[in-house]
Every structure is written in C-alpha cells, then in structure tokens.
Amino acid sequence: MAEAYERFRPGYPADLFDVVTAYAGRPVLSALEIGAGTGKATRLLARRGVAVTATDPDGAMLAELRRQVPAGVTTVQAAFEDLPPGDGTYGLVFAAAALHWTDPAGRWERVARLLEPGGVFASFGGPVQLADPTVGEAVRVAREPFLASDDVPSPDGTPPENDMQWPGTELERSEWFGDVRQVEIERRLTMSAADYVGHLSTVSAYLVLPPADREQVFQQILRVLPDTVEIAADVTAHLARRALP
Fold it and tell me: Domain range for residue 111?
C-alpha cells in the first residue's frame, strides 16, 4: 500500500505551512509527526528547514518516506502509543489524516508531553471528493451494491453541519490545550479517472471489502467516470496550543 499512498494521495499545499507558523507566532524549529505514512506532510515542513521526526508503525511506509524526504528527517517505526514518554522536546506535534488511528484514551496528555510549553499541535486533512455532483451521483450508484458510503465518520460523532469539527471538538474539551482554531484551505485538483480510482484504493472503506468485491466496485466506478475528473480536496487544519503549567 505504501507505493499506492505515495502515488495517489494528494500532497499538502504550501499555504498550510504558513497557516501553522502564523498560528505558532514564532519559528517552528522541531516537529514530530504522528502516523507519517509516506511523508507527504513531513516533506512540506522539512523542506522549510524544520527538523522533523517522522513516526509510523509500518516499516514499508517509512521506507517509502525515506525515498521522498530530505536526508535530515529522523524516522521512528512505532505507533503513537508506543513512543517513549514525552519530555517537552518539540515545538510542533502534528498529524496528517492519521489522528483517527490513535487511541483516544490519554491521547491529549501524550501529545502535550511531547510539546514544549506553549508548543503547537496541528491536525490536518480532508476528504477527496468529486467536484461535479452529477459525476458524484453516478459513482454513488455504481458503488452502492458494495458500499453504502465511503465517508469517514467523525470519531466523536460530531455532525458535519457543526462549525467546529473533530478533533477541534476534543481539543476544546481538553485541559491540556487552549486557543483552538479551525482553518479551511480550499483546493481544486484535476486527475485522471484511473488515478481517482487509485486514490479510492487507499481509502479504508474500500480496503476492508473482500478482494473480489473491491476489484468489482473499482471497475464499476471506472466505467461511469469521464477520462478526467475535477476533485475538491479542501484541507481543514485544527490548531491548538499546549496550556502553560
């Protein structure tokens, strides 16, 4: 899957770095990424001079990451819960479309202990959706016999119409963080139909299907797509500051 993640998942816009550093209000010198995958977010920071420690439990993901990021990036093969207890080392801890894989029990205390006082936590991601509603409906109909929805539900049950979405909702309730903000970065992309289906092959709702069903639903979707598709790939960033002792 590491090769598919690297090939088909969109990277992150340069504006995202500016959003994080403007919120921090000071230079971000060191950072740790939770669930770095193939390093699409790691490289955004590392290429701006941030000393990044990229963590992921999957060795194949980290091997692909090392092929893509600057040589100075440190890698640690471990799940977030298995990292050594934090000692306030980092100015930034961040997760890019990976936080929902972490254990909610003690999550924010573990993050806070990795951060220096006043350090910043950032989470960012967002769905990759077809921009044309007519094409989207055709895909929904093609997918329906195999999968009612490929949406990722909010981990804490926050309805999609709420102004503040998860994990901002959890951060607002946490004693470890304050000054919680949600920032939207609009983005439109164009990709081939084959690459869009390739992206779907990395989405968990499809990954859990039986292999035969997964192959069949991808063929059904491919049949109803035009040669190229416009994608709405907006990025939502949640930012919070570690509360001072």
Answer: 2-128+152-188+234-242
